[in-house]
Amino acid sequence: MSAFEEKQSLLNWYCPLPQLDFDRILLGHGSGGLLTNKLLEAGVFELLNNEWLAQKHDGAILDLEGRMAFSTDSFVVSPLFFPGGNIGELAVNGTVNDLAMCGALPRYLSLGFILEEGFPMRDFWEILLSIRKSCALAGVNVVTGDTKVVERGKGDGIFINTTGIGPLHPQASIQSARVVPGDRVIVSGPVAAHGMAILSVREGLQFESTITSDTRALHRPVKALLDVLGQEVHLLRDPTRGGVATTLNEIARDRRLGVALEQSSLPIDEVVESACEILGLDPLYVANEGIFIAIVSESTAADALAILKTLPETSGAAVIGEIVADHPGQVLLKSRIGGKRVVGMLPGEQLPRIC
Amino acid sequence: MKYLSEYRDPQLVGQYLDEIHEIVTRPWSIMEVCGGQTHGLVKNGILNLLPPQINMIHGPGCPVCVTPLHLIDKAVHLALDKGVILCSYGDMVRVPGSKMSLLEAKANGADIRILYSPLESLKLAQEYPGREVVFFAVGFETTAPANALAVIQASLLGLKNFSILTSHVLVPPAMEAVLNDETAKIDGFLAAGHVCAIMGLSEYGPLVEKYQVPIVVTGFEPVDLLQGILMTVRQLEQGVAALENQYSRVVKAEGNPQAVEVIHKVFEVSDREWRGIGNIPGSGYELRPEFRGYDAMVKFEVDIPKAPEHPDCIAGLVLKGIKKPQQCPQFGKGCTPSSPFGAPMVSSEGACAAYYHFQAVEIG
Prior knowledge:
The complex is a heterodimer of chains A (355) and B (364). With 355 residues, chain A is α+β, with helices and mostly antiparallel strands. Chain A is built from 9 helices and 13 strands. Chain B folds into 2 domains: 123 residues, Rossmann fold; 151 residues, Rossmann fold (3-Layer(aba) Sandwich). Chain B contains 16 helices and 11 strands.
């Protein structure tokens, strides 16, 4: 069986919740004794088994050489389950993507859980299944981890931390210092899907069309870009919380350069755009989980776009703007009708308008 | 969805802009009443596309901005000290009270829920029969029908643990207060489209007659705003004063009679204090006596001292269009969206917040 076929069979094989004598997480499951072992054996190790976890050691021994990227992220999303995925997918893809943004190929992950007493085992199982699936799709392994349980009321069901490591692409030279006027700003796909998918399941909001989260691993498109363009890729960032606007503002401030955006070039699904309109939210500030921003040299922008458009993860890529020497530290948007406005940093959470 | 793209058509926008540029011969100050219209002008970068003779003055149509400081303090008090579930529209929670905003109260342990509709607070009241649920009923006439409906539903359900903290304000009295203020020189108005969708046009004819100013009921998309401005400028250049309806696809002369009926069933007109402006007679809604049981101010004894506004905040002058935000000495210095002195710097529809984001754009 080829590696691909093996992956496919893994994905197609439905794994039912094993027979356990507990249906909820108990405080004892985090205290390191018999209950902990029961949970890990029946849950984590059952699904995520590999040569490292099989050692059941306090840490994983890895064979690494050369320059590495190393990144961590914690996941506290609420609700835990949403159209297009759950916290498990986010936990894997989030760190995989952080490593990809450094120009690295993700290889190994650590996985830490903080579970709330009373958390249903059925939900934990589903999240573990998602973690397994996402790891398989991304080609990464969870090699070490930890499980803690906190008292009821002291957690939000489950919090997850993942930390990842992987070798740097030999052609990668990703640094914000390399961003210069003339560079083009590319977004790898339509914006605002994840944030609106989350909002759509929160109580009181029911849209007729389902908006699904865009969570996905992005290291393959990144590798494709670096393979061909190498050092012409100046910066990569994934616009998660705070959206595209926040990420671009951070870059503008950091580099004391301006960013000029074209609203008419911003890719967004019609359903997502409508949902933003109804709620009075600006899609530029809504969270994303499956797109990245690439800042590339002016001469390679067309090639970069062409490469991304051939890949399924990034077929909706578009050039949305340019780095300029004007208005340093600020992001300016040219609206569809030709007017200009500043796209600033939000002071806090974006709140829907009253009227 | 067609409406969105048609009323954002760059070609049509260009046409209207060209005509405005062609016909304007002298300076005109036009007030767009509604905060949503301010938002539309800023969001689409329209302000610097207009000819320099057109001075757009941002009106007091931001219900968040005009909710009195004292009422916010009362809401904070109810949530923190009386332990109610305080429900609010999103924009309200960041507005500073004299000690803290509702968002800060939340961080201090208050149970604050951000809702999209007052009917959700009814669900909460049913879900938590042992807790008091208070809905912060803020808004112009636009949100009054939904708030009235919530009270009617509560009464039909026999809910004993639900009440509203009313902060309803009305547009025509506010426009009249602006027109009566000699320091505010407004030549024409873009009336608030959604308020008129509810209330109709009948209150605006008398204002046109009395003050001889053009009033054009206007929508919110770029084409709406520019068409409304064009219609106003045409009148001004011709020296006429009339009531016109640009937003005719949504606004009917009689408004929404069912919504008006629901409002009048539950609310009656009362005097109301506007933050930064002061008391404007007959400019608000209060619950009618038969519904006073749902009035949080009647239900809960809230005896807290009235705190003064920040001494450096000139929100009142900004809301009446007498001063522009950047004329405030604290603008962008002590007072910013993350550390606001007053409401217009916080609300996404507030003039100060709009200018804070817009003012850095010195582009031809």
